[in-house]
Amino acid sequence: MKMAINSNNFRAIILAASYGRRMRPLTNHTHKALLQYGEKTVLQRIIDALLYAHIDCITIVTGYPKLRIKLEDIYLNYWHLSNQSSF
To answer: What's the Cα-to-Cα distance from 55 to each of 30, 70, 71, 80, rounded to whole Å?
Structure first.
């Protein structure tokens, strides 16, 4: 059975759980996904690109408890990883 390709079939996962150590000192007090890039945060730019692609169900995997944004007309899931392991 063929599935038609449309926006209702696609979901996105944004992996935002790492510390961003290589970006220090910029990430000493701000999560790397929340760093400003122009007028928007890095995370907002990623979400905007997904919305432009008509993806309206987004899951954000986070290890940073304060990483929360609110957007209207979009369904955001948050998965918080409390224990991060280093590789």
So the answer is: 27, 16, 14, 21
